[in-house]
Design goal:
The chain is about 30% helix and about 20% strand. The chain is α+β, with helices and mostly antiparallel strands. The longest helix has 25 residues, at about 110-135. The protein is globular. Helix 1 (about 10-20) crosses helix 3 and helix 8 (about 305-320) packs antiparallel against helix 10 (about 365-385). The strands form 4 sheets. Strands 1-2-6-3-7-14 form a 6-stranded mixed sheet, sandwiched between helices.
Length: about 375
C-alpha cells in the first residue's frame, strides 16, 4: 500500500499527555476512546484499522500497512489500559497529564501511555517515509490491546483472530524499559492450592480436621521448590512465592477449607505444566493444585538479525551500548510469541519499570521522543531489509 507523504504526526509528548488524560483504568476498562484516538491517526496515514473487542466497549486496535512480504511483517505492540488510580491522595491529579520537574505525571504515564505515544509516532513516521518512497519491503502492523492489566484478556482474544492478526517475523513491545533494549522476560505460572478438612466447634478441635494446617504445611514445602533448578544466563533464577492464604469462616469454627495462591516466575526451559507437576509432587498429598494462568517466558537470541538491528538503533539514538537484558515481569509479548511462532520479540519503551502502578506515577519527558526515535529507526531498518 502506498501512502501520501502529508501524514499528520503529533509531537509524542503531546500525544502522551492526551492519552494520560483519557481514563482507561482496568477495571472497568474504557479503552475505546484511546483506541479511537490512535486508530484515527493511523487511518489518516494509510493504515487499515480494525477494533476487535473481547467484551462490549473493550476494543483492541489492529492497524496494518500491507506489503508484498507480510511473512516478514514487523508488529509494534502496547496496551491501552492502566491499573486503577487507587484510594490514596495523589500530589498531582492522576488524569491531568501535568509536566513538572522534567516528568510527565499521571496514571499510565509510565505504564504505558508514553510507550503508546512513542510507538504510534514511530509508525506514523514510517508511513510518511514510505509514502514518499513508494511502499514497504515488509509489512507493518500495530497491535494495541485492551485488558492487559487483568490477565492479557485483549491479546488472548486476538489469538482467536488469525485472519486479522496475520503473520509476523518480529515484534517490538513498547513496555516501560527505561529506554533500555530488552530481549525477553520471565514467564508466569499462577497456581491455586486447596485443602479440605472437617469443620468442628472451636472448643473441640479433636473432632475436626483443620484444613489450614494442611495448607500451611504445603506452603512451607513449596518454599524451596525451585532450589537447584538451573537459571538463565540473562534472566537469572526462576522464583516461587506463596502470596495469599485464606481459610475459615469464623474464629470459633475449625476451618474445613483453605486456599493458597502461588506466584511463579519461569525462565526458558520451564513450562506452566512442569511447574504444576513439580508442585503436585512436593505437596499434592496435602492440597490439590490448579493452574490459574500461565504464560511462557520470552527470549530472543542476541544474534538474531532483528535483535542486532534493534541494538544498533538503540545505540545510535542513546549513545550507549545495550547488552542482552531481560525483564522480570511478563507482558503481551508472551501471547504474541504464540500468535507469531518463531518471531523475534524485543522490548523498548519510555518509563522506569519501578514507576509502574505507583502512587504519583510519572515518566521522564526526555525518554518519550527518544523512544519514538529508537522504535522508528528499528522499524525502518527492518522494513527496508
Amino acid at each position: 500500500m502506498t501512502v501520501t507523504p502529508d501524514v499528520v504526526i503529533p509531537d509524542p509528548m503531546d500525544l502522551a499527555r492526551d492519552l494520560v488524560r483519557i481514563d482507561t483504568a482496568n477495571p472497568p476498562g474504557r479503552e475505546e476512546p484511546a483506541a479511537r484516538l490512535l486508530g484515527g491517526l493511523l487511518a489518516g496515514a494509510g493504515f487499515s484499522v480494525a477494533y476487535p473487542a473481547f467484551a462490549p466497549g473493550r476494543p483492541s486496535l489492529v492497524a496494518e500497512l500491507a506489503s508484498p512480504d507480510m511473512t516478514g511483517c514487523l508488529c509494534l505492540s502496547g496496551h491501552l489500559d492502566t491499573v486503577p488510580v487507587g484510594e490514596a491522595a495523589w500530589q498531582r491529579p492522576p488524569l491531568s497529564g501535568e509536566i513538572a520537574d522534567g516528568r510527565l505525571w499521571g496514571r499510565g504515564a509510565a505504564d504505558m501511555k508514553a510507550g503508546l505515544a512513542a510507538l504510534t509516532v514511530a509508525a506514523l513516521r514510517v508511513a510518511q517515509a514510505h509514502g514518499r518512497t513508494g511502499g514497504l519491503a515488509r509489512g507493518l502492523r500495530v497491535v494495541l490491546s485492551a485488558g492487559e492489566e487483568t490477565g492479557l484478556d485483549g491479546v488472548k482474544f486476538l489469538r482467536t483472530q488469525p485472519q486479522l492478526m496475520g503473520q509476523a517475523a518480529a515484534v517490538l513491545v513498547a513496555e516501560p524499559t527505561d529506554c533500555r533494549l530488552l530481549l525477553g522476560h520471565k514467564g508466569v505460572a499462577w497456581l491455586a492450592a486447596e485443602a479440605h478438612g472437617k469443620a468442628a466447634h472451636g472448643s473441640m478441635p479433636e473432632k475436626g480436621v483443620n484444613a489450614l494446617y494442611a495448607a500451611a504445611e504445603a506452603a512451607l514445602l513449596l518454599r524451596g521448590a525451585f532450589d537447584g533448578l538451573p537459571g538463565h544466563p540473562v534472566m537469572g533464577r526462576p522464583t516461587l512465592s506463596v502470596n495469599r492464604m485464606t481459610a475459615g469462616s469464623k474464629l470459633n469454627i475449625i476451618p474445613d477449607h483453605a486456599r493458597l495462591e502461588i506466584d511463579c516466575r519461569t525462565v526458558p526451559g520451564m513450562s506452566g505444566e512442569g511447574v504444576l507437576d513439580l508442585a503436585t509432587r512436593l505437596a499434592g498429598h496435602l492440597v490439590h493444585f490448579t493452574a490459574l494462568d500461565t504464560h511462557a517466558p520470552v527470549w530472543t537470541d542476541p544474534s538474531h538479525p532483528f535483535a542486532r538491528l534493534a541494538a544498533d538503533a538503540a545505540r545510535q539514538a542513546t549513545g550507549a551500548a545495550h547488552p542482552p537484558a531481560a525483564a522480570s515481569y511478563f507482558t503481551d509479548g508472551s501471547v504474541l510469541a504464540q500468535i507469531y511462532p518463531g518471531a523475534a520479540v524485543a522490548f523498548f519503551g519510555p518509563g522506569e519499570p519501578g514507576a509502574c502502578h505507583t502512587l504519583d506515577e510519572s515518566c521522564p519527558v526526555a525518554q518519550i521522543p527518544l523512544a519514538a526515535e529508537v522504535i522508528a529507526r528499528t522499524a525502518e531498518a527492518w522494513l527496508r531489509a
